[in-house]
Amino acid sequence: MLEPFKLYLNTRFTESLGQVSGSRLFLEIRERGYRGSRQVVRKHLAALRAGNVEPVRADIPSPRKITGWIMRPRETLTDQQQERLFEVRLACPDITRACDLARAFTDLVRNRRGTFLLEWIRQAEQDASKPMSGFAGFLRQDLDAVTAGLTHTWSSGVVEGHVNRVKTLKRSMYGRASFTLLRTRILTQP
Length: 190
Description:
It is a single chain. Helix content is 69%, strand content 0%. The protein has helices spanning 6-15, 22-31, 38-50, 63-71, 79-91, 93-110, 117-127, 130-141, 143-151, 157-172, 179-188. Helix 2 (22-31) crosses helix 3 and helix 6 (93-110) packs antiparallel against helix 7. The N and C termini lie far apart (59 Å).
């Protein structure tokens, strides 16, 4: 129960050079929402005075959270999420560059700006981390198809859906029927 208040306690202890009473700190954190006992606060302060207290763990967001913040449009992020992402970007320059490239690529996909893809690939290959530059290299291998996919409004999604449906039917009938029955089932499906 004391974990969320340890940073505050440690800061106050350091500011007062260890000359603050446990009762006073207990009352201060109680006003901030602490519901534990006074004895727990005293034990923590005794460990601080002895110099054998564990450092307070930083509240580091998970990679999944950071990725979610990067990939979502800025307008959908709360103020706290934007602030946390800003802190992460300040702490790690590699994440900053990856964030900029990921947002630029997301903009290319969402707004169908395939004409700018080659420029994005050049930027990613030049000064991005190895995974990002590797992704850019794979895009370069099939540049015409990727550019067409990011430019045109039509796609092969409907055809892929039908192929997936046919494969599902075939698997469900595996070993039980002939090609004629499979053909009949496919043609009678809506």
